[in-house]
Write a structure and sequence with these properties.
There is one protein chain. This protein is mainly α and 217 residues long. It is 61% helix and 0% strand. The protein contains 9 helices and no strands. Helix 1 runs parallel beside helix 9. The longest helix has 28 residues. 36% of the residues are buried.
């Protein structure tokens, strides 16, 4: 059974790395429970930086809880992997494919929102990994956002996000909250974690592309 979303645990990058390692089956299917657990860790990362990422973290928590409810529900076996979830919901007409209807919180739509945010975090963390001491986190975060999430957000949210990024703490603060040691150690762990996150993202992207699910309303 999947646990609840709420957690006051301190963020640790290595734990997120371990979680995403567990995400994939031998057949490269993505376990929803481990995907959710990975996102819990990423939410702790966002929250550890204060209210700057509150608008994204709050939405992620809501989406995580929806998926947890599916996992723990009577049809939970159909939600064990992203692949089985997509198959089950499509075969049973549980996804609003072209316009909002009676399934606004389908598993497919819910996970799509997390999938988009995961791309933003992946791009941002990669920029952090390759940054220098004097690199501006505000610019790195804005660039990652503009390449990913911004195209799915209305103007009001894009504007608020841009303002929030301007007050981001510096690179040392980001590295400190990752709780893995020296900057060199942070860079090394990011180097291990990001390919795993990227693989999970790419498998999901391919699955959603195959079933025309990338633009669900």
């Amino acid at each position: 059974m999947a646990g609840s979303v709420a957690s006051e645990e301190k963020f640790c990058l290595r734990e997120v790395l371990d979680t995403f390692k567990s995400c994939l089956s031998e057949d490269k299917e993505v376990y929803v429970e481990h995907y959710v657990a990975g996102w819990r860790g990423l939410v702790r990362f966002l929250n550890s930086l204060g209210n700057v990422f509150g608008f994204i973290a709050k939405d992620a928590v809501n989406k995580i809880q929806i998926l947890v409810n599916y996992l723990n529900g009577e049809n939970g076996s159909h939600y064990s992997t992203i692949q089985s979830m997509v198959k089950y919901e499509l075969e049973n007409g549980l996804v609003d494919l072209t316009k909002k209807g009676s399934h606004p919180e389908s598993g497919c739509r819910t996970l799509l929102r997390l999938h988009r945010a995961l791309r933003w975090l992946e791009l941002f963390l990669e920029r952090l990994r390759t940054s220098t001491e004097d690199s501006k986190t505000s610019a790195m975060c804005a660039e990652a956002y503009n390449e990913s999430l911004s195209q799915h957000h209305p103007w009001v949210i894009r504007t608020a996000a841009g303002m929030a990024f301007c007050v981001l703490p510096g690179r040392p603060t980001f590295f400190e909250v990752m709780n893995v040691g020296t900057p060199e150690q942070v860079v090394a762990v990011l180097g291990d974690a990001l390919p795993l996150i990227s693989e999970v993202y790419n498998i999901t992207e391919e699955l959603y592309t195959q079933h025309n699910l990338l633009k669900l309303p």
